Amino acid sequence: MFRKQxxxxxxxxxxxxxxxxxxxxxxxxxxIADLWSSYLGASVTAVDVAMMMGMLKxxxxxxxxxxxxxxxxxxxxxxxxxxxxxxxxxxxxxRVADVPEPIVEPMRSPxxxxxxxxxxxxxxxxxxxxxxxxxxxxxxxxLGCSNAAVYENLRQMRAENEESEETEKEESET
Length: 174
Description:
mainly alpha; 2 domains; about 0% strand; Resolvase_HTH_dom; two-stranded antiparallel ribbon; coiled coil
């Protein structure tokens, strides 16, 4: 594999395949960091997770019994680590601050409160913050809603996007 192919494969895997399966990298690496921190009894960050996963790939490469995918994954972990740095996360937050004030739409929460009232969730803001790279937990904290409400909203967004893509595909075939 040539370096351009390795980087292109890393881009495809990190920016599409893995994101679609596991969600935003800072959410996934943040969860891993929390689990590792608890297990180790020491603080581990999302950046640490990326670097340690990179070291795992380096150890596999060092054995001499590696695959080219180890190099692709190593490049991917480096990019993910860079995206999880405080500076990168601040840049994402700055971009979100430039988003116009969204329209508030009511949304059903998966769990009803005992009062029976539905919580109003700002779906446009969830979408904007998610697109800016915020984690679901951070969005929930910012909007004062549950993680489940954020995940449900994001699930609905994906379903709407898939439906729209199918419609566009059908229209282009006719």
